[in-house]
Design a protein that fits this description.
By secondary structure, the chain is mostly helical. The chain has a single domain, classed as Orthogonal Bundle (Tetracycline Repressor, domain 2). Helix 6 packs antiparallel against helix 7 and helix 7 packs antiparallel against helix 8. The longest helix is centred in the C-terminal third of the chain and has 28 residues. The protein is globular. The N and C termini lie far apart (53 Å). It is a multi-pass membrane protein. Pfam families: UbiA. It is found in: Membrane.
């Protein structure tokens, strides 16, 4: 295989797994790492944590594409994934998945013993998510748990121990992720009904799902405020949380039960700003206090 062909295949795989969406969990892991270190973490630790995050998330998404092929092909929104798999080759996607798992385990091992001990559980959770829509309406929360592992893993990677703060950050991620994933799932309601898949929009209807999503995001803001009680984060962080709350209000204003046309803006743009913005003010607070 020529270098150009290999590069094209890798680019296609990154497109398949929506590599850019790593942005959603990346900032919380960075926040957790800096809080655990009380400032700038060691460069080696930080790079290993980021590599572990990227490889774990990549493995989870490529695995999801492999096991969901029979469902994706019947969904107009996801049918392109099957075409991409054919272009790449399922064998290559499997190789990519296994390689990412091996690299994730290697990063955990290089960090510390607790990180390496927790790694198999993390793999079980992030792979298990792909099957949850087959039997439960609460798959959105499992996705939240999968992303919520990032601040816990980052904290463990720095300190080699666990305390309250990373679990609060993880809980905030669970609420945030479940909330925006419920919004995103509204556009798949008809497909879920036809395919026998489960989701909150299918269980509660779109109106009820959007209400639940708003409640989850309200609680997320409360948890973010609670983080300041267990850290030395001050006014700058609190202002950041206020901005997050305003952005969440804007996100929910974009989506109506009878108008889902702005879901992509709500899902990608607003949540990207929330995660990166909160990370920014948190790091700024840490370094100026």
């Amino acid at each position: 295989m020529s270098f150009s062909s290999l590069l094209k295949k890798i680019t296609s795989i990154f497109d398949l797994i929506k590599f850019s969406h790593t942005l959603f969990s990346f900032p919380f892991a960075v926040m957790s790492a800096f809080l655990a270190a009380g400032g700038m973490p060691g460069l080696k630790q930080l790079l290993l944590i980021l590599a572990a995050l990227v490889t774990a998330r990549s493995a989870a998404m490529s695995f999801n594409r492999l096991v969901d092929t029979s469902y994706d092909i019947h969904n107009p929104r996801t049918a392109y994934r099957v075409e991409l798999q054919k272009k790449i080759g399922r064998g290559s996607v499997w190789v990519f998945t296994i390689l990412c798992v091996m690299l994730f385990l290697a990063c955990a091992w290089l960090l510390n013993q607790l990180a390496f001990s927790m790694a198999p559980l993390a793999i079980l959770i992030i792979f298990g998510y792909s099957y949850t829509k087959r039997f439960t309406h609460f798959s959105h929360f499992v996705l939240g748990l999968a992303l919520g592992l990032s601040p816990i893993g980052a904290w463990v990677g720095i300190q080699g121990t666990l305390t309250t703060t990373p679990f609060l950050l993880a809980f905030a991620v669970v609420l945030w992720t479940a909330g925006f994933d419920i919004i995103y799932a509204c556009q798949d309601l008809e497909h879920d009904i036809k395919s026998g898949l489960h989701s909150i929009p299918k269980k509660l209807g779109i109106k009820g799902a959007l209400v639940l999503s708003a409640v989850l995001h309200l609680f997320m803001v409360g948890v973010l405020l609670a983080v300041s009680l267990y850290t030395e984060l001050g006014m700058m962080y609190m202002i950041g949380v206020g901005i997050v709350a305003a952005l969440l209000v804007y996100e929910h204003a974009l989506v109506r039960p009878k108008d889902l046309s702005k879901i992509n803006t709500a899902f990608f743009t607003v949540n990207g700003i929330i995660s990166v913005g909160l990370m920014g003010v948190t790091l700024l607070d840490i370094f100026v206090r």
